[in-house]
Amino acid sequence: MKASLYFLLYVGVMRKGVIILLSLLMVVSCKGTKSDCAVDRTIECRESQIRPDIPEYVKEVTFLPLEAGDNTLLGSVDKVAFYNDLIYIADYSSRKILAYDMNGKLCFVLDRQGRGPGEYLEVKSFTVDSDNLYVLDNIGKKLLAYDPLTGEYKASREMPIVAWDVEVLSNGDLIFAFVTAGGKLSKEQPPYRLFVTDNDLNIKIQMLGYCEKEGLDAFGYGRFFSTYRDKVLFCSYGNDAYYVLDRGNGEIIETVGIDFENKASRKDKNDVSLINSFTHLGSVPIVCGDYLFCDITTKDAGGGYCLYGSNTNGFVSNPENGGRNCMLEPVCSYADSFVSVLEDRDMYDFIVSTGFQKAGEDAENALDSGSLVLLFYHMI
Length: 380
Prior knowledge:
This protein is mostly beta strands. It has helices at 6-16, 266-269, 345-353, 361-368, and strands at residues 41-45, 58-65, 79-83, 86-91, 96-101, 106-110, 125-128, 133-137, 142-146, 153-158, 165-168, 174-177, 192-197, 203-209, 225-228, 231-234, 241-246, 252-260, 280-281, 286-288, 291-298, 302-309, 332-334, 337-342, 373-379. Helices cover 8% and strands 36% of the residues. The longest helix is centred in the first third of the chain and has 11 residues, at 6-16. It is globular.
């Protein structure tokens, strides 16, 4: 597995610069309606049998260069969402969200840092539907709503909890994720990992409870949700299961376990020092059609990105040295495609040097100007 994942590990370092994993413990639930020891379905993963065959399941790769503007420079891409025939791209470190049309033309930039009306102190996460573009600001203790087509400020509400991620549901409710990593919150809140609220932020449902004696969750990355059609997935670093939620009401409809070859015993999961001695999920999986894309972390924080589907006969990864149709880490999915981001020319030149297909001149010019290029991996 190590050799076959070299390509994506190298690209991952190029993208992120330095990758820091906070190896804290993802624990089982003691109060939630479902726990990671009561799975509804299990997917087998034999790490020693992962094949370097991802390119075989990619029909084609298309490129979408994004228009550069006066305020479009990003440090990194933390979240991408498709809605309202627009593409929303967030960089949490620079505290801004870019909105493009489906042809890559810039529509607006949301960059309203400050303490005044309609301004925020951080972009912890964002989500969007046909009515609102929501920005989660934990420092300011509020959720702000903007017009999703123009970025104009509409309203803000005080947050009842601290949360690390948010998604809007199809009925207008919101679901928030929180993981405990020790320390003390400035304000006590119910000991749950998932909260569903109405549009006025009144808590309606609390799920996946935790107790102090169980240990800590992981707190090392910014995305705890992924979405696909009528489903929302939730997971955090260090787990060997993920939760499938109904996008209509936010309730858990399925818990899916990953049966790793080098899996932790229940006892080992409660020992923080052992987390890098067993295989686990490094982030929430992303679904596209019949495929599941996973970040799998193996012994000593190694590992890489793997694909699973009903037609893959197990998990598959990229070839060791890259090549045509090799997959960069997806940030989301859209229609029949996983979506990845080319953030700079150096990354592009590197993957092309391994045999990856060249983009058109417009995409290369966009990278030269410091803009982004989206990659759409159309699956078979």
